[in-house]
TrEMBL record:
Signal peptide: none annotated. Residues 1-88 form the ELMO domain. This is ELMO domain-containing protein.
Length: 151
């Protein structure tokens, strides 16, 4: 999303939207709108992650196609929340179609989106292998433990 020049010129509120989309996804889960999908997949985190990406994808499409600005962000968030609560499965299907299209072809800028499913991340999400390179992730708890060791 950030590679798109039109979003940079429209002052896209990425961080604010990210926090609000997290809130939306949690609310959809709390209202048990994802129970069927979580049970079908036997996973919760992967479903939440997919819904998060799907809502962001819808936001991107709305923002770009309707030429939204920061002054529209509140209205867009309300629409996103209502849509996510009404149609979470539709959002997930749209994401799946988008990812299948992305996997089949590379974007204009040469960037190909990757899906990080549980098969890629495995049960331990502290590291992942991509293109034979291991990426390690540090959690907040890890940072606290390192700080205590230094003392």
């Amino acid at each position: 999303m950030l590679r798109d020049g039109s979003l940079q010129s429209s002052n896209f509120p990425f961080c604010v939207m990210s926090v609000n989309i997290t809130r939306i996804v949690i609310q959809v889960l709390r209202e048990e709108r994802l129970s069927r999908e979580c049970n079908r997949r036997q996973q919760v985190i992967a479903v939440l992650n997919d819904l998060y990406v799907a809502v962001f994808l819808r936001l991107f499409n709305i923002w770009k196609s309707q030429k939204k600005t920061i002054s529209d962000s509140g209205f867009v968030l309300k629409e996103l929340e209502a849509f996510a609560k009404r149609n979470p499965r539709q959002l997930l299907r749209h994401l799946e179609m988008y990812m299948n299209e992305s996997a089949a072809s590379t974007g204009e800028d040469g960037f190909q989106a990757r899906a990080f499913s549980s098969e890629v991340l495995g049960p331990n999400i502290s590291s992942v292998n991509i293109d034979n390179k291991e990426l390690n992730f540090t959690g907040v708890g890890d940072l606290l433990a390192e700080g205590e060791q230094d003392s």
